């Protein structure tokens, strides 16, 4: 189909929930994508932080081809080697104790919230079920994860919510403490707030918060849906922040492009959920698990993580070296980068021009261009992205 034919059908048959860019991709390789016209783009998005190993990764396609011929699905009522292997790898890479596999970030967060509430009810009885999240957070699109999201713009149209979340000001421990009541069971956060603008939490705040939570037996719930699986140069970002959460949610990059989510629990919560108390038809599906095994093997290697850090530095320094008066600041960790614009009203035209020059980027918050390139992006692709960006900035 031509681009116009695709756009026409989308307009007619697909719900209009996305403001799409005027491009249809037909294939990709590494961090490069090609559209219907054969034009190439450097992909600084990897989906939205999904294709950690890039497009058409030979290890990934080989593992999927193999699994595809064995079976694509059997239910969680049976054991599979591919699932337990992924779970073991994830526990080894994270230091967590057990895993529940889901299919998406929001679902992983739902599982995390359910585990936290059940832990509290088991230990303290019913009613201790409120969760504190941070302002400017993003936790997903289901009804409960929308409520957990600390941004007013997400708290409309789909009411009623349960009213069981409180919102603390980031990096202000006193404010968070003032929200704790006898009914609080957990604190949930992103160590780098992605969707709202790539805001890195202050590591001292995170450490003090973790200590406070431990003291009060409030579970620390770490949403690593975006920051996880190597994005920051650590397998999970908490390993860089020097804290140990009680529960971690993971998704986006975990399946390397296939839907995979995970709830990882530490020792405190390893036995909280029992048979029949949580589940998912598609969770741990063999294709996603085959992909996850390759992703975890690749990304958990120390040399791979060091390279992510190196590439993050290269891209960040390259952008700073553009000396553009349009850019106020470049922030982030590893390959999770926020380019903060001086004039937010210029953002959509800048993003459009970047796309014209063949660079795909994301946005975040009101004034940020967000870069989440494939972790395997090459030096050549970084150089090419920078020279295309130089023309726009
Ligand atoms: C993307 C994201 C989610 C939601 O993930 P889905 O797979 O879209 O449900 C949740 N939390 C964070 C931090 C995210 O970046």
Write the layout of secondary structure elements.
Blueprint (H helix, E strand, L loop, with lengths): L2 H11 L11 E5 L2 E4 L4 E4 L2 H4 L8 H13 L10 H14 L3 E5 L2 H20 L5 E5 L8 H6 L16 E4 L4 H7 L4 E6 L2 E2 L5 E2 L2 H14 L2 E5 L14 H4 L5 E4 L10 E5 L20 H14 L2 H19 L6 E7 L2 E6 L5 H11 L1 E2 L1 E3 L3 E4 L7 H14 L1
Parallel strand pairs: 3-15, 5-6, 5-7, 7-10, 10-11
Antiparallel strand pairs: 1-2, 2-3, 4-12, 8-9, 11-12, 13-14, 14-17, 16-17
The structure holds pyridoxal-5'-phosphate.
Pyridoxal-5'-phosphate binds next to helix 5.
| Uncertain stretches of 5 or more adjacent residues | none
Structural class: alpha/beta
Number of strands: 17
- Catalogue the ligands: pyridoxal-5'-phosphate
Share in helix: 25-40%
How are the strands of the largest sheet arranged?
A: 4-12-11-10-7-5-6
Average residue pLDDT: 98
In words, what does this structure look like?
With 393 residues, the chain is of the alpha/beta class. The chain contains 13 helices and 17 strands. Strands 4-12-11-10-7-5-6 form a seven-stranded mixed β-sheet, sandwiched between helices. The chain is globular and about 60 Å long. It starts with a helix and ends with a helix. 46% of the residues are buried. The model has no long low-confidence stretch (mean pLDDT 98). Bound molecules: pyridoxal-5'-phosphate. The site of pyridoxal-5'-phosphate has 15 residues, from helix 5.
């Amino acid at each position: 189909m031509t681009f116009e034919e695709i756009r026409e059908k989308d307009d007619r048959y697909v719900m209009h929930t996305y403001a799409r860019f005027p491009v249809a991709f037909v294939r990709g390789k590494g961090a490069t994508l090609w559209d219907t016209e054969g034009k190439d783009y450097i992909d600084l998005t990897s989906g939205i932080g999904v294709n950690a190993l890039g497009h058409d990764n030979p290890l990934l396609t080989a593992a999927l081809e193999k699994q595809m011929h064995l079976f694509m699905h059997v239910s969680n009522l049976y054991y599979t080697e591919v699932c337990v292997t992924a779970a073991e790898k994830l526990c080894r890479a994270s230091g967590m104790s057990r895993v529940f596999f889901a299919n998406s970030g929001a679902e992983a967060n739902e599982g995390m919230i359910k585990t936290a509430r059940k832990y509290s009810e088991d230990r303290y009885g019913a009613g201790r079920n409120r969760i504190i999240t941070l302002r400017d957070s993003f936790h997903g699109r289901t009804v409960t994860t929308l409520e957990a999201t600390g941004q007013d713009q997400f708290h409309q149209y789909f009411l009623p919510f349960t009213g069981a979340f409180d919102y603390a000001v980031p990096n202000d421990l006193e404010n968070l403490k003032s929200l704790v009541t006898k009914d609080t069971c957990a604190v949930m956060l992103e160590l780098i707030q992605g969707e709202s603008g790539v805001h890195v939490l202050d590591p001292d705040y995170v450490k003090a918060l973790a200590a406070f939570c431990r003291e009060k037996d409030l579970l620390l719930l770490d949403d690593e849906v975006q920051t996880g699986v190597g994005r920051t140069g650590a397998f999970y970002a908490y390993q860089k922040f020097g804290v140990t959460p009680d529960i971690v949610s993971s998704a986006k990059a975990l399946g390397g492009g296939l839907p995979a989510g995970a709830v990882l629990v530490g020792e405190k919560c390893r036995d909280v959920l029992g048979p029949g108390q949580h589940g998912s038809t598609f969770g741990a599906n063999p294709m996603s698990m085959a992909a996850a095994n390759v992703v975890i093997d690749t990304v958990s290697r120390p040399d791979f993580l060091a390279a992510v850090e190196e590439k993050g530095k290269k891209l960040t320094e390259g952008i700073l070296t553009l000396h553009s008066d349009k850019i106020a600041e470049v922030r982030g960790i590893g390959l999770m980068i926020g380019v903060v614009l001086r004039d937010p009203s210029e953002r959509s035209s800048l993003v459009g021009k970047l796309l014209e020059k063949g660079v795909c980027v994301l946005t975040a918050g009101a004034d940020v261009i967000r870069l989440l390139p494939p972790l395997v992006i090459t030096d050549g692709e970084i150089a090419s992205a920078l020279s295309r960006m130089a023309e726009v900035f």
